[in-house]
């Protein structure tokens, strides 16, 4: 299940809706409250975004035989502390759930058309892509740990 | 055409209809042609290394052919998650 | 924070109590409902268990500079679908949170004195330790990915 | 002594007070000595490869010295999480 939403992400409600599989790994990314950002604005490419997220979730589901893969991504304006993204992977075994969850958050950072604009007081700037994000996504291209 | 993030801001609009000449057959050539439309376009497209593109909602390299594309998007590297 | 409890684990309440850091990774292990188990009983070594869990959480907190590390482990009898263990790692950045969460669940499987007894109908048997669990825990002994 | 899981079940109790002779100075020697106490002890301790130990709540190899240990626990490999 993927969702792009302008409304706050209700992590507890999302967790409640998940099947009770053996292993569930989740990740929540929030607007950091500690680096002076007063507002974060998320722009996206309607249509292409949903397609990209579907592809990430489908790839994870197939590769790790997931019972469930969830990606929920916030768009629009949000405040420090609010959730930007929620990712969950439910599987029979823990390694599959943990790896699939890490894969999905790494991949969506490079594959899904979102752009962040940070406002600090009166100054707004578009966030630059980090080289580390590309490296994190690329490590899944050929992962020797996949079967561990 | 669709523009996002600071590309959109520099150009001053998020979308526009265009009718490029027949010799514009790649994304790269399209960007070159678009850069002549206004000072905002020129500014947005000044540094090709900072631009990414999608043709009919699929990410492509700037060298990609346009083919019969109906929707081309130009934008900065993505920063979601 | 670590806790060993005979009561059901309330994942939503645990999540609510966490600080709103940039990145939060969680793991929930449940009694699998798909392999015929009708009851799972968790025995533990009082005192030594808490000490082992504290050590796992403290090691993770130091190694990944976590804002918060949580391990909650159920003991006693539980039914299919119920949560056995909840692990959470809160950090400024996603890789630290994801790695620390995986580390804690891998380590507690080999370092904390719990024993599972599965009941299928009338037959009860003690679960054997898996070699894969030892390998998963050992991969953290020298991890080249730590700084990634 | 503390026993857990199937070790506890085989012996029939989770704890007992013991007073081993002076020549019992390691966990391994203690297990050998305990095995003579009952058929249950003998069964529980038949396969050393399946046993683990803690001395005063710290995990130790079976060869570890007992020292002035107040609490020794014998149990199978752990299976939590």
Search tags:
heterotetramer; A: 148 residues; alpha+beta; Aldehyde Oxidoreductase, domain 3; four-stranded antiparallel sheet; 8 strands; 32% helix; globular; B: 81 residues; Ubiquitin-like (UB roll); four-stranded mixed sheet; 3 helices; 27% helix
Radius of gyration of chain A: 16 Å
**Element pattern of chain A in H and E:** EHEEHEEEHEEH
Helix-and-strand structural type of chain A = alpha+beta
Helix content of chain A: 25-40%
- Our measurement of the CA-to-CA distance between the termini of chain B, rounded to an integer number of angstroms, reads 25 Å
Sum up the overall morphology of chain B in one term. globular
β-strand percent of chain B reads 15-25%
What layout of secondary structure does this protein have?
The complex is a heterotetramer, with two copies of chain A (148 residues) and two copies of chain B (81 residues).
Chain A: E1 2-5, H1 11-16, E2 23-30, E3 39-44, H2 48-63, E4 68-74, E5 76-78, E6 83-91, H3 94-111, E7 114-120, E8 123-126, H4 131-138
Helix pairs in contact in A: 2-3, 3-4
Chain B: E1 2-3, H1 5-11, H2 27-35, H3 39-44, E2 52-55, E3 58-60, E4 72-75
Parallel strand pairs in B: 1-4
Antiparallel strand pairs in B: 2-3, 2-4
């Amino acid at each position: 299940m993927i969702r792009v939403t302008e409304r706050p992400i209700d992590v507890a409600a999302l967790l409640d809706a998940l099947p009770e599989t053996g292993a569930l790994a989740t990740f929540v990314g929030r607007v950091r409250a500690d680096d002076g950002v007063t507002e974060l604005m998320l722009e996206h490419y309607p249509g292409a975004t949903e397609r990209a997220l579907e592809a990430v979730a489908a790839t994870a589901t197939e590769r790790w035989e997931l019972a469930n893969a969830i990606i929920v991504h916030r768009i629009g304006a949000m405040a420090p502390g609010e959730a930007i993204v929620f990712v969950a992977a439910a599987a029979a075994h823990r390694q599959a759930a943990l790896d699939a969850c890490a894969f999905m958050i790494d991949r969506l950072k490079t594959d899904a058309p979102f752009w962040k604009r940070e406002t600090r007081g009166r100054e707004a700037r578009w966030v630059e892509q980090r080289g580390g994000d590309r490296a994190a996504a690329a490590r899944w291209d050929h992962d020797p740990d996949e079967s561990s | 055409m669709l523009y996002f993030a600071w590309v959109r801001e520099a150009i001053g609009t998020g979308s526009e209809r265009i009718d490029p000449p027949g010799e514009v057959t790649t994304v790269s050539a399209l960007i070159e042609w678009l850069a002549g439309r206004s000072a905002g376009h020129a500014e947005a497209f000044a540094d090709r290394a900072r631009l990414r593109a999608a043709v009919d909602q699929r990410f492509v390299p700037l060298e990609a052919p346009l083919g019969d594309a109906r929707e081309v998007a130009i934008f900065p590297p993505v920063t979601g998650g």
